[in-house]
Amino acid sequence: MQRRILAPFVILAALMPATVSFAAAAEAKTAVPRVNVYQYAMDNPVADTQLKIVPTLGSSVPASVALSPCEGEKTYVYFYYGGQPVIVEQATRSIVRIGQSN
Question: Taking the model in full, what pTM does it have?
Answer without folding.
Answer: 0.67
